[in-house]
Amino acid sequence: MSHSGFSPQLRVVLGPTNTGKTHLAMERLLAHQSGMIGLPLRLLARETYDRCLRGDFGRVHKADVALMTGEEKILPPKARYFICTTEAMPISREVEFVAIDECQLAGDEERGHIFTDRILHARGTSETILLGAATMAPILRQLLDWVLRGVKRTGDLILATVGGGIITNILAADQFLAITLPGRLFTPAYDDRGLNRLSLSRTLEDSATLTSALIPWNTCGAFMAATLGVATLDYAPYALFNLICPVLAVMFGYLMIAQPRAEAARA
Question: Which of 167, 47, 41 is nearest to 105 (CA)?
Fold first, then answer.
């Protein structure tokens, strides 16, 4: 496990309980030569360990799997996969894959410091997945709704859309959320002004899609850095297309360039 530098591949998986996030992480763990997962509860770690030995996530030999919690330790001498409570993760061990479950517990008063430490520093040498509930979505929705209150004209709306895409990219660290959340929230505003929804789609592409590759902790930025072999902040100043398009989108909005009306689109 690496505690410094850039993680070759970092993904954030958000969703409600019982949607298969842990199953996905365990399948990815077994796809590597070594790995560990941090789970929030001792009983959940034990259940996941038992399911792993039953082959629920793929074929694996018992001698390759370890269980580490505050009360129970099963440590085969040549174990390659470690199923742990978050507190018990052997952070000094280097492994290819790391997953941390229920990352929203970083906000917990008692255990939050442990989860925060793992989120910031625990990295697999090949892949890292952070799992959590989509509790960030309501907060982002309130923030974007506040942004919309300042909209007086078309240029303001385009600026709010660009800003909303960038803000969501930064806070949610996921390109998909940066497109869908502002898209759903801003659609009524575009309809009220009689603007073609293609303008909304294009503006989201100019902001949410393009800026996601410029944010190191965003899933897209992490993927680009892993593919290019160059840290995100090193290539970002040269990504002129990604930097210029959001600015042009705002300029076109205020100058009313390429902002077709909905009626014209239907005609």
Answer: 41
